[in-house]
Amino acid sequence: MQEAAIISDLTTSHLREVSEQDLEMLLCWRNHSSVSQYMYHQNTITMDEHLRWYARTQKNPLTANYIFEHRDKPSGFVSLSRYSWANIGEWGFYIAPEADKGTGRALAEVTLKHFFENLQMDKINAEVIDYNTRSINYHKRLGFVEEGFRKNYYVKNNVFYDILFFGLKQSDYLETQKNASA
């Protein structure tokens, strides 16, 4: 399916909370090399570790985990970790390895709308390893602003990488949406 077709058909895209029935699928996605290469922890995750993660996040009222669906097909994962001191959070996400081209853009549109319009978040933050140029460019296209970095913070195969920090304020998101519909 073409990217334009996915984006223009956002009425068939939505987020839903992760359920126990999703855990095996999520573990397969997370352990897939196209996803794991961009994670802080790139080791293969076992089902026991995955179940502990799920139980821990289910107990945490500041964490929400979602499946992004397009035409009733699970196509991505999104997490939101809210900060306890403000209506600000950090998002993380990945696209299903077999997802159609354009899924990332659709996921962002549905997710940011949910975060800013439904949850009334004031700001969403993101962290990106500096070798993940696709994610860096993705965040910039979405209107995120690079706010800083942590030098030589991540090590992979004895090579040090920086972590870039991005942020998107609700007011900037709403202004972008207003201009897009004008």
Describe this structure in words.
The chain has 182 residues and is of the alpha+beta class. Helices cover 38% and strands 34% of the residues. The chain is built from 7 helices and 7 strands. The protein has helices at residues 3-8, 23-31, 33-36, 47-59, 103-118, 133-141, 170-181; strands spanning 13-17, 63-70, 73-82, 88-95, 123-129, 145-156, 159-169. The chain has a 7-stranded mixed sheet with strand order 1-2-3-4-5-7-6, sandwiched between helices. Strand 2 and strand 3 form a beta hairpin. The longest helix has 16 residues, at 103-118. It is globular and about 45 Å long. The two termini are 28 Å apart. Mean pLDDT is 92; it is low at 1-8.
Secondary structure elements and pairings:
Blueprint: H1 3-8, E1 13-17, H2 23-31, H3 33-36, H4 47-59, E2 63-70, E3 73-82, E4 88-95, H5 103-118, E5 123-129, H6 133-141, E6 145-156, E7 159-169, H7 170-181
Parallel strand pairs: 4-5
Antiparallel strand pairs: 1-2, 2-3, 3-4, 5-7, 6-7
Total strands = 7
- Global shape: globular
For the residues shown, what is the average pLDDT?
Answer: 92
Strand content: 25-35%
Strand order of the largest sheet: 1-2-3-4-5-7-6
Radius of gyration: 16 Å
Assign a percent range to the helix content.
25-40%
* Structural class by SSE content: alpha+beta
Task: Report the end-to-end length measured between terminal Cα atoms.
Answer: 28 Å
How many alpha or pi helices?
7
- Largest β-sheet summary: 7 strands, mixed
Low-confidence stretches: 1-8
Helix and strand element order: HEHHHEEEHEHEEH
